[in-house]
Amino acid sequence: MPQSRVSRRRNKRKLRKRVYVITPILILFLSVIGYAISLYIKADTVFTASHVEDTRDGGKSDLREEVVDPKEDNVSILFIGVDSSQKRGYNDSARSDALILATLNKEDKSVKMVSIPRDSLVYIPEVGYETKINHAHAYGGPEATIGTVENLFGIPVDYYVRVNFEAFIDIVNALGGINVDVPFEMWEQNSQDIKGAIHLLPGEQKLDGEKALAFARSRMYDNDIERGKRQQEVIKAIVKKGISLGSVFKYGEVIEAVGENMTTNLTFDEMKSFISYGLDGGNLSIESSSLEGYDYQPADAYYWKLDEAALEAKKLELKQHLEVE
Hints:
Elements: H1 2-50, E1 75-82, E2 96-105, E3 110-115, E4 121-124, E5 129-132, H2 135-153, E6 159-164, H3 166-174, E7 178-182, E8 186-188, E9 198-200, E10 203-207, H4 209-217, H5 224-242, H6 251-259, E11 262-264, H7 268-272, E12 285-290, E13 293-296, E14 303-306, H8 308-322
Parallel strand pairs: 1-6, 3-12
Antiparallel strand pairs: 1-2, 2-3, 4-5, 6-11, 7-10, 8-9, 13-14
Helix pairs in contact: 1-6, 3-4, 3-6, 4-5
């Protein structure tokens, strides 16, 4: 009998120890689940509000026979950066300040990004003549810009994401800053157009939102090609920081920052399908490039004249990556 009581006491002590160990794990597990659910609900709400219907015939590119499914198909996304801040009166018909075309290959889990210089001289179907590509957005918004890019590359543009540059500030700040390599000393204006407000020294460093935007927008020291490279570097830095474990609990702020400054024809379900690109053991490949050309200045207007041979090579490269005829 005494032994039985001793045995029962031992069993109780063991049970208490197990409870002490399991309870914190259970609380942590439930907290993570709860956070994930709240994030999902927030993302659904915010990104659904950012969605606009695709006004193209059949809800697809004219260069597609069928509507694509990003869960199964290779797709392309056109990122349109506009500078329609409060300072500029939130002008929806503003010229685009940055254009990046991305093709995504589902099987390879690879992305090719091509920066299109804003002063590129191209044919704009919306108006029927050649001018700077950044005028397309002012003539007809995302639809006219998509039509221009499709005509330029001869590939379908399945989706677009139009982002106000103010989003860069909010997203970078929400992530706690990003690391970039500043090539030389810069004095730049800030988001309120105050000249010389941003001072960057050369070297690798962490930038907050205002500094990251100034870095991405700078064009007075070189040209649009280098500017496009800086914009791609900022995007890569945001992606790298965003998929890091330390950023998990900042996703709520990032979602709000993106949603408030974005319009897109992507649905929330379509956005979710791109998660698979970042879940392949960290092997996501992002290759960036720009369109080669040269300065061209007839009369008083400046253009970036695209190199025809280089353009044809880039068109073939994107077609092969997207696997379209």
